[in-house]
Amino acid sequence: MNKYAKRYLIDAMSGMAQGLFCSLLIGTIVKTLGQQLLRLNNNAVFQFLVNAGNFATDAHVVGAAMAIGIGFAMGVPALVLFSLAAVGSAANITGGAGGPLAVLLIAIIAAEMGCLVSKKTKVDIIVTPAVTILVGALLTVLTAKYIGAAASSVGRFLVWTTKLHPFWMGILVSVVVGVALTLPISSAAICAAFGLTGLAGGAAVAGCCAQMVGFAVLSFRENRWGGILSQGLGTSMLQMPNIIKNPKTWLPPIITSAITGPIATCLFKMEMNGAAVSSGMGTCGLVGQIGVITGWYEPSEVAIGHGAAAIQPGFVDWLGLVLICIVLPAVLCWALGLLFRKLGWIKDGDLELN
């Protein structure tokens, strides 16, 4: 069970998130940059950025990138890996707004079926791609639409519930997604699968930032500036071995996320309307913040489906982004860290990275 849980819930989801990052996410950033520059000066270079972004964010390309990422993370043979491009493209298109979840489930099954026949015949170059594509296509026709609809329904429910109860849902979403980010599973893939945008997406960003910035500041005594960079701009997952040794080290970031989540949803009403995968990225490469900014100017199709519209951000919007994503996580975790060290719950060396 542990083997399969790692293969499907950790490796496959991480691969899907990387595929999303290298297509939809980067494409959205490049396109938004080009669009904003075009407002200043209409020239061929800025138009090229827009075109390049459009190529990368095409639903066919995104689906193929996700499926290839899944296959690569699972370590499938080359012929299976390349065949997954067609499977992912079909599943993402058919799944609609909930396409990422359809790609995840269908690509896993198609990949495993391809692995079963790989190198078992003398005409492997025909049999393996054929089995992978046909299984993926059949599953797409039979299930992708329904998987996508189910995922979209969950996403809409979370977005709607967060609007209705921003305080309690701000706490819940922030804590849960933040915890998922530090665990060896992909919070980005979870957010993408359910199309987490709007206030719910903003709460998710807050929770992820609380974990990453929080652990970076909390462990500064042990890890200095290297820890700031590796955790604040990399991943808080690096702390998992230390959390297992002393679970109390996880409390300051979790408490911080429970505070910043409702501040994001109730006070600043921070929405993440860029690519949904950004909701689960936090400060990793500043992707969460870039997602919020791109969502202001160019909401994603998923966000538009949830009722989002482009805005011109004001001072309060920028202030909220900086406070929620950087300042408050740093200050709160620093203060909680001092308290926990004084109580003896966290000792020197407990947060040291190998």
Task: Please characterize this protein's 3D structure.
The chain is built from 15 helices and no strands. It starts with a helix and ends in an 11-residue tail after the last helix. The longest helix has 41 residues, at 124-164. The mean pLDDT is 91. It is an all-alpha fold and 354 residues long. The chain has helices at residues 2-40, 44-57, 59-74, 78-95, 99-117, 124-164, 166-182, 187-194, 198-218, 220-232, 240-245, 251-267, 287-297, 301-305, 315-343. The protein is globular and about 70 Å long.
The low-pLDDT segments are none
Q: Give the overall average pLDDT.
A: 91
What is the beta-strand fraction? under 5%
Gross morphology: globular
| Largest sheet properties | none
Question: How many individual helices?
Answer: 15
Based on CA atoms alone, the radius of gyration comes out at 21 Å
How are helices and strands ordered from N to C? Answer: HHHHHHHHHHHHHHH
Residues in helices, as a percent range: over 70%
Number of strands: 0
User: From the helix content, strand content and strand pairing, which structural class follows?
Assistant: mainly alpha
- End-to-end separation in angstroms reads 28 Å
Draw up the topology in text.
Layout: H1 2-40, H2 44-57, H3 59-74, H4 78-95, H5 99-117, H6 124-164, H7 166-182, H8 187-194, H9 198-218, H10 220-232, H11 240-245, H12 251-267, H13 287-297, H14 301-305, H15 315-343
Helix pairs in contact: 1-2, 1-3, 1-8, 1-13, 3-4, 3-5, 4-5, 4-6, 5-6, 5-8, 6-7, 6-9, 7-8, 7-9, 7-12, 9-10, 9-12, 9-15, 12-15
